[in-house]
């Protein structure tokens, strides 16, 4: 199946976090592909990976990086597809460096930034689903089901906590 | 024309910043509506404004707030539409409080966060256009034209700066 | 016994911290109930839990959450009861995200914020006792006794440290 | 009328901010008194002001200070009344120093911390009203009315913003 | 021997860090005593410990605390002896809360603040020695010897590192 | 009169802040001298200024600098006299850069750090007086008088604020 | 004369700051050229500007940008020439966003980062001179003269400040 | 072979990080020497180590330190050679103290700052190579080869990640 979402991470060491994105996309039956490209070490590759993705019909690109996390912004400079940025906690600064490097984009080139680390990796997938749902009503239904499931889980946890006391 | 984007701000004092969003959306010919709702002072209104928007066919919601900026997250709790959050610099903490309150959403409910203040207000509009372009190829063309225009402006500025020396 | 205090946490993973609150309340013989509700995943549940609590005579609500910790503010948007917020250290940002999301409430809807994590969980209980003591002189006495006990503990620790040298 | 709330500020330069507290308390018809005491320059005065307040029937104390804002914590060390802390933006650090000095109280002695500056000054008054409402049902009604008034104001602002476009 | 330096810590859990201070003072043959007092839990004790110390001829007081570390400032409010503050890393905020609570003293009551944690605990002792050396030329000599010893250690380390390559 | 305190500032632009130090020292009748030396631009001058000061009988050195404020630490590397560091707010980072550069000294070479800017400039003078008072009982009396004067000022301010209401 | 240094700024609004760089380079008689290129709005232009510069014999590139300041890192991804990054204070976050975006480069592609704003703009020029001096002994002499001149200026300022008292 | 690069670290405990610098320099066949000198504990040694290095033909000096990391700035005050600063994460503040102490140099004396910790240690070596390449075309070739090698590694990692899915 043709990928609708492309996940680009700055290093293969980001895989354990970004697999969360892939898992959630799989839950929504959204085909995705995943690769490594570095904004700094492989600028040409980054550009060509994006061009290829556009040709193959990818509709949303997710970029994940730590430290001076330029990858999502550099991706956004090569495409007008929506780009989601996941800041990773990959230095001593707890991901604050990655967060500011991704979210504080100057006017003209947005990056849709989500939370730092695993929470953001999951949310990137859901945000991608919300974007793709613009032309896929079935996805909207899946998103509503996902909400219900999450609500149910909260209620179950509530019951356990309430019993405990 | 039916609005495609709804801009909700936490206070009318946010209007000077959020008019930037409206202007850019107008440049892209994307019909939008704009209102005020407070996550804390009018929780019911916030919920009903979103319900109405969904019925009227709104496809992207932009929430802007300062301080403990819960509005975008609260909007996201009431809809599965993509929600874009604009952190505003409305306290002594330079918008860092709003940024963290918007971007650090727990797993399950994403908010697509953009930069603090006017830069983010503009980028929210472009991100909305990128999302709507998923089913509107004309918008993709407009986004590409906008990129070219921005590039041209940079080149003109470059010439001025180069002459100066 | 009817609960006077309701503890709401954003996730059952917050239980080990929030049990500190329950323990201290128990020390003061203040009946409390404890549940899970998410500002984002279960906005309706959050509202209904609060409505129920008000009907049952709860007088103080304690909300605890990490990351973009909207829960205490959202609770406060649904009640005029005093709401105490406990910021939890649940992301790479050491609880600074939760602290700012809870304490920086815009004018009109206060949240009584206490320290991050276990210290705050304990202090939330004592603050609740101080509030309930407004109409319960016995609680004032218990609070004074608790102060004396703490002072005594400090003096005992002082003796041990003084001997050491 | 006997004051129910005592406002203590660290310096008379804090008056323009803390008058906001007094105004909101006046709106709720809650009698208050206001004074200056310094945790560091007048430790005895701080203690005696609190003792006097307790004798006169004060039920909530609000402490406001900037920089290394010890005043609210020091007040709390002298009383078991609920103490509300308002961090002021009085140094180059934008009130972050005052916020951390007030909110991060060690276990045992809570300070109910509100937002930095004027927003916090207002919220301190509302929080005091919420605490006093524990034994004054009329105050609860006033708080509910205040909420309605705020909601109405938001709706009026919304109408203005909606017309604008 | 009569203590010249009094070390007050906010909790006995601070002992492992503050023993560094005691050790360095012992190296300089400066008699010291060590105790526990809490600015918040035992305000009277804190005041009386200081009064006693002054009577016994203590000349420098070192206060160490974490979180909203009011202890050094509260000590300084009770004496005109030089007070040295050691910020401890005792919360999720890495000691930044303690640092700002200690160093940002308002004009009139200084606290001589040293670095966070063990480095600061050692430096507090050396600073105390430098202060006491104002009237004890032998201490000046010991401080100069200590400098030489440190320089020698650096040179030895340098030789090892240089050999390594 | 021979100076007892030497004030070294990194730049003459720091004079308006550091004159506060000189004024307070003058109030205490402590003779001081004031000069400019840069840790980076004039390392030799910095060293020689300190050597001269030691010869002339200076007992406390106050160093003030902004940005990467190495001056106080560099002064401390050349003397075993007590060195007080005043962090100045001289960059966009609000003095946080200067604070951390001054206070976070590694073990072995302490700098007695006071608050950022004018408050710190005043407190540096008082701390110097407290240190010099170790061998000058008259200074202790002046410090006690100064405390009383400050307390009186607080009480006067309190009366004004109390009347206002 | 062929430029040895190329200054690239992200926007012409950065010119008032970056003219400081040009002025200092002129003082050292180092020919430079100056242009505008945006890492995000003109990624191709950025790459081609660098390629051209390399062909023309440029030896050092200085990149200046604010917010999520990717420009210096992106420049470094296109060349193995030394790249100096100047973080600009162009958002509400005081340049901290630009600083972290520039300095926290992942391993493999360094950016030589200098201080935020005008101080950094000047230092970028001096650092470029220090680099070019590697093969130009005359530049080393100019750098030494510049040091002497700065030292002299400090001494003159010192005399003025010393007289003042 | 005569060293071209001198690595100075503030303490031998920094060796495990700074060996990364030495390794990368060795990969580029750049002879280097490595020593320990403390800006504060051995100011004379620091100055003489630099003087010796200049005489022996060292062309780039790398200074690494944690906490109030004055070493790189102090090195820069003694030489007009390019000085690279590596901030180390050696306190509870995650290296933010070292970063600001190194990068925020006042105008006149630059330090070329790289990222915190190991990433910075590696980048310092590459930056040194880029500087030395100004007069050594073979080094430029090695730097280009290093880039290619890094790009290849990214591509290999990309293939592994791509296969995984």
Task: Please provide a written account of the structure.
8 copies of one chain form a homooctamer. Chain A is of the alpha/beta class and 165 residues long. Chain A has 2 domains: 5-134, Rossmann fold (3-Layer(aba) Sandwich); 137-165. Chain A has helices at 15-27, 43-56, 71-77, 96-103, 118-132, 137-164, and strands at 5-9, 32-36, 60-66, 83-88, 112-113. Chain A has a 5-stranded parallel sheet, sandwiched between helices. In chain A, strand 1, helix 1 (15-27) and strand 2 (32-36) form a beta-alpha-beta unit. In chain A, helix 1 (15-27) runs parallel beside helix 5 (118-132). Chain A is globular. Chains in contact: A-B, A-C, A-G, A-H, B-C, B-D, B-G, C-D, C-E, D-E, D-F, E-F, E-H, F-G, F-H, G-H.
Could you give a quick summary of the protein structure above?
8 copies of one chain form a homooctamer. The first copy, chain A, is of the alpha/beta class and 165 residues long. In chain A, 52% of the residues lie in helices and 15% in strands.
What strand order characterises the main sheet of chain A?
2-1-3-4-5
Please work out how many helical segments of chain A DSSP would assign.
6
- Count of beta strands of chain A: 5
Q: How is the biggest beta sheet of chain A arranged?
A: 5 strands, parallel
Order of helices and strands of chain A: EHEHEHEHEHH
Number of domains of chain A: 2
Helix content of chain A: 40-55%
Class from secondary-structure proportions of chain A = alpha/beta
């Amino acid at each position: 199946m043709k990928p609708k979402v492309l996940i680009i991470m700055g290093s293969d060491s980001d895989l354990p976090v970004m697999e969360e994105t892939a898992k959630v996309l799989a839950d929504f039956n959204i085909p995705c592909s995943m690769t490594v490209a570095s904004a700094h070490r492989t600028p040409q590759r980054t550009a060509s990976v994006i061009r290829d993705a556009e040709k193959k019909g990818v509709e949303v690109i997710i970029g994940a990086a730590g430290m001076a996390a330029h990858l999502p912004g550099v991706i956004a400079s090569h495409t007008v597809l929506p780009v989601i940025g996941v800041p990773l906690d990959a230095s001593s600064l707890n991901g604050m460096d990655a967060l500011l490097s991704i979210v504080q984009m100057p006017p003209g080139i947005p990056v849709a930034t989500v939370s730092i680390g695993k929470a953001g990796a999951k949310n990137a997938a859901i945000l991608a689903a919300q974007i793709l749902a613009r032309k896929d009503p079935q996805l909207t239904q899946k998103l509503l089901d996902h909400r219900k499931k999450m609500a149910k889980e909260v209620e179950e946890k509530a019951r356990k906590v309430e019993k405990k006391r």
